[in-house]
Design a protein that fits this description.
CATH class: Alpha Beta
Distance between the termini: 16 Å
CATH architecture: 3-Layer(aba) Sandwich
Radius of gyration: 19 Å
Strand order of the largest sheet: 5-4-1-2-10-9-3-8-7-6
CATH superfamily: P-loop containing nucleotide triphosphate hydrolases
Number of helices: 10
Oligomer: single chain
Length: about 270
Amino acid sequence: METKETVQVNNESVFNVTDLSVSYGDFVAIKNVNMDITKNKITAFIGPSGCGKSTLIRTFNRMNDLILGAKVNGTITYQGVDLYDKMVDPVQVRRRIGMVFQKPNPFPKTIKENITFGLKVNNMTDNMDERVEKALTQAALWDEVKDDLNKNALELSGGQQQRLCIARTIAVEPDTILMDEPCSALDPVATKKIEDLMQDLVKEFSILIVTHNMQQASRSSDYCAFFTTKTSDDGKRRTGELVEFNETSVMFTTPDQELTEQYISGRFG
């Protein structure tokens, strides 16, 4: 499948991806990905199930290291540093590049303890109360929970739990936030709050988001990457490949690839 050359943008890049492929054992989940991710912008990954979106986003903070048999080939540089250099500490990578998952996963602790957990792990124990308030404020949750910080986080609504997970992520002061379908388990009202929150957070953080929601990608992201799958030579497996990567406004109005237009318009996938 022909793909566009790496999109070059005038803004500063936070990630540079070159010839990236990820495999699990002998199964190639995604291959030949080339893209530059712009700093302090929202980049959305879209495409049908099984095209490798979640696999790809996990490469940006080395979460695939935790999966037995996973292998990453190619290069990802983060602010000029090769993320997969043997001298790079994956733990430090995950502090700098936070992750918010599909399903809200607060710890079965108090709201405050959810925030302070990562702070303690990272020895960021000065001004704890201020750090808690700042993180919850940034996640647009402080006004809703400031009088109930000792409440069990599991008693919060789904949308509040997800915003708490975002607060927990940004409390340790990362540079980048990865979001793997953060709204898929939420109702439309909670989804709108997360989308509004993203617009505020991107002023301070670079954001990468996986989403199946075309409307969400269109209204929330600055750049968009569309992936699809290609059947292997033996016809038994499907490998994800990048079809098009462009500014969202361009991709949703005048995409370069017919396959992109078919997917966005609902005639494919």
